[in-house]
Structure formats: structure tokens, C-alpha cells
Amino acid sequence: MHQFRIQIAKIRALHLIAAAALAVSVSVQLLAGVFPGSVLNSIAIAWRIETCGLVIALLATLAGAHRLGWTRRQVEARDEARAHLVERDSLTNAYSRYRFMELLEEKLKRIRSQQMAGQAPGEFTLMLIDVDHFKKINDTFGHAAGDQVLKTVVQVAAARTNWTVGRLGGDEFAIIIEDTDYRHILGDTTNFMQKLAELLRKENEKNGYDGVSIGLAQAPLHAGLADALLTCADIALYQAKRNGRNQFAFFDSDMQRTQIRERLVARELRAAILLNHLAVYYQPIVDHENSIVSAEALVRWHDPVRRVVIPPSEFIPIAEQSGLIDSLGEWVFRRVCKDYARSGFKSIAVNVSGAQLMHDQLVPMLREVLRETGCSAGNFVLEITETVALNATPTVINTVCQLKEMGFRLSLDDFGTGNSGFALMRELPFDIIKIDKSYVQKLGDDAIAQVFVSGIGRLGEMLGFEVVAEGIESSEHKILARGAGSTRFQGYLFGKPEPLPQAEPIAAKG
Ligand code: C2E
Ligand code: CA
Ligand code: CA
pTM of the prediction? Predict the structure, then answer.
């Protein structure tokens, strides 16, 4: 625009020159009439000046016209390029965020007018898509792989006639679906996800594609304004991620309540970590003679206002989801290291969440806390659940190997809750297997549990693993678990998780 103004100014200057030349020419003519016989009166000079003025005026006008045409062409070309940019996303050819929002608002405006006029409003579904672990795709397989995934999402979605696809940014897409029939949407969304998996999970084209999470909301049923409708679809999307990703969820108002509650808990938990309202309880692990050989550290949250102890099952998932798990894990490990010397336990097992393994702060954090407290990694066991190990990405495998190199012993927790834990025993450097309590407690009357547990016992013996049976509540459980090859035992029979007497206060870490 600035350049355009300069051009206009130049044309004006040229016009000014032409006008001045003409004015001079006319003035000379007039003066010649007023002062006959003067030098100016010379017809030849006046004629030449006039001609000269007219020529200059003509040239100036021509140049101005040329300049103006050139400028207009420039501006038009630029506007065209800008219009295309605004209309479409250049990578995927989906509607740009700006244009998609315009379309969404237009649709909702029409619905509102129909409602005002007492007509049956048009309805539609808004779908929000988020590519699972997109950052990992880019980081591990390169930006070309990431681009390919984004392009395929749009290509598959846009192939449907009643889907209008927009890219909201990064790996986030929104789709207007001209349909609200639950069964149709269910079928179409499932097909869409299957088609994506088919195209992107080819053996020969490794791109790290893990799936997409999808949230769905309906207009005008859930909201009549664009922002509110997007929020509803976003709440459903969050729920789909929360349920384990690579799935879709329809919005409902309960979801909103759950998420508000979770956000509240996350805020209180953040404060609890800073204010040291957490505690670590220890549960003994015994050998076949019931002698304590180690203990498992289990976190608790003491709420001073409600005067209750909140169990980890209520806040660990929220900590994982909200990113607080890293500071929570650090708090627990520091507490355990500080407790170690006076605990009397030779070895203490600490739970490590899958979310911590996905982040790269874990190894430096453990190193730093060991250095700060003067503890040795060899005194600790890190417990990693089987489901996490089963879905181990290259980042997780790398971290697990680093932990082993640091000197920690590794335990495969909740063994049996995944499906193919046996393969992991060979692939990852675990030292201990903890059989999930759901198997141990069924040993008395479930033949499959008996075969499963004795299989692990035998394998442990062969490969040199320690096998811990969890959830031992009775002597019968212990006899059966021991008979099936377990060498260590943990459960209420030997002791519930308890705090150490008079835990030393720990300095808050901001
Ligand atoms: P987990 O690692 O499987 O821990 C064992 C759970 O079984 C503990 O529940 C323990 O109290 C319970 N338990 C022990 N013996 C028995 C028994 O004989 N019968 C029955 N029914 N239960 C028994 P808790 O303390 O509520 O912990 C629940 C889960 O929370 C843990 O399961 C672990 O996954 C997680 N968790 C606890 N502390 C931490 C922590 O510091 N960090 C992380 N990331 N997760 C933790
Ligand atoms: Ca555990
Ligand atoms: Ca366990």
C-alpha cells in the first residue's frame, strides 16, 4: 500500500509539471497581448514556449497513465495471491482457519435466522481432529513425514461430499459435516479413521503415524455460536485423548463437568506439590520367609482443608494429563532419597509413570536428585507398568536403557494387564516382574491364572528375574503364589502402605 501511495504521488507530480508548463505558455501569450513590442512579444518565442509546454504536458500525462496502469497491475496481482493464501492452506489445500471460521459463522448465522423466523433450523456436526503424537512424527521421522500425514488427513476427509475441511493450525483440523444422524456420523468417522490407518500405516513407509483423536459436537443442539461450538467439540476431543487417543468422542454435558473438576484438582495438586501436602507411604516386600527385603514407595495427598488422604488413583491420571506428573515424580523421588537412610529398607521401589518416560526431563531429574541427596541409583528399583512398556516408542526405549545404565534396577509392574508382556522380558532390560494382583488373587480358583503365574515363575527362574506377587492378602495367596514360582511377596498380609515414623520435613521446591 505504501508503494501504491508513492506511485500516486509521482503521477501527481507529473501532472503538476504539465499544468505548470501550460500555465507558463498561456501567461506568455497573455503578456504578449498586454505589452506589444516587448521581447516577450516575439511570436516565435511564445510559439516555441507554448509548443514546448504542450509537449511536456503530453509526455507527463502519458508517463502518468503508464505508471498508473503498472501500479494497478501490481496491486491486483498481490491481492490475488493474498486472497488465495487466506482462502486455502497452502500445504493441504484445506480451507484456512480464517476462511473456515467465516464459513462456520455464516452457517450458524443462517441457523439463528431460521430459528428467529420460526423455521426448522438446518443442523450440522462439527468435527475436530488432532493427529496423535504429531510432534513425535516430526521429530523422529522428519517434517516430510509430518507433511504427508497432514496432507493425507485432508485428502481422505475432503473425498467425502458432505465434509467441509479446514486447517485450524499445526495438526488440528475442523470439519463441518452436513449430517447429524448419530449412526451415520459413527459409521463415517470409523471409516475415515480406518482409511487413514490403511494409507498411513504401510510397512514400507514408516512415518510414525499413531492415529487421530476426534471430538464431535452438533449445532444448534450443543451451541449456536462458533466459539461455543468449537469449545464443545474441543471438550469431546480432550475426552477422546483422555480415553487413550486414536478414538472419537461425542460431546455431552457430563464431559464438561468432569473436565472442570479435573482442572480444579490439577490446580489444587499444583499447590499441594509446592506446599508439601504430599506424603510417601511405604509397603514392605518380603521373601519366602517373610523377611522384609525392600519396599514400594506409594504417594499420598493429605488435603489439610478436607482432612482426608486422597489415594493416587484419583490424582495420578490428572497429574499425567496436566503435565504435573514431572514435578510430582520429582517430589516423590526426592522424598524417597531423603527417607532412604533412615527407612531401614535395603532397596526402595519407586513408580515411574509412562508420561514421565515420554518426557526428556526424567533422566536429568533423577541424576540431579541423586547428586543432591548423595544417594546411589543401585538402591532403587524403578517400576514401569507393562502397558507403558508395551507401547514403548524409540524415545521410551532409549530412556529405559539410560535408566539401566545409570544403575537403577527396573521392574515390569502390573504384569498380565497388557497382552504380550512376555516379549518385553527379552527386549527391555528388566530385572524384576511384578505379577498384577488380579492374577494373584484368582490363583485359588482360576486355572488360567495358575498356568499364567507358574509360566512367569518358570521363565523368571530361567532368565534370572525376580518375580514379585502383588496383592497377597491371605496365607493361601502366598502359598499358591510361591507354589507358582514367585520369589517375593507384597500385600496387606505383610503390611499396608504406611508412612515412616516422623518423616523429616522436605524443603519445598518452586
Ligand atoms: P501399583 O504400583 O500397582 O501399586 C500397588 C497398589 O496396590 C497400591 O495402591 C497398594 O496400596 C495396593 N495394594 C498393595 N497391597 C494390596 C493388597 O494386598 N490388596 C489390595 N487390594 N491392594 C493392595 P495405591 O497406593 O492406591 O496406588 C495405586 C497406584 O497408583 C499404584 O499402583 C501406582 O500405579 C500409582 N502410584 C502410587 N504412587 C505413585 C507414584 O509415586 N508415582 C506414580 N507415577 N504412580 C504412583
Ligand atoms: Ca507399582
Ligand atoms: Ca502394581
Answer: 0.69
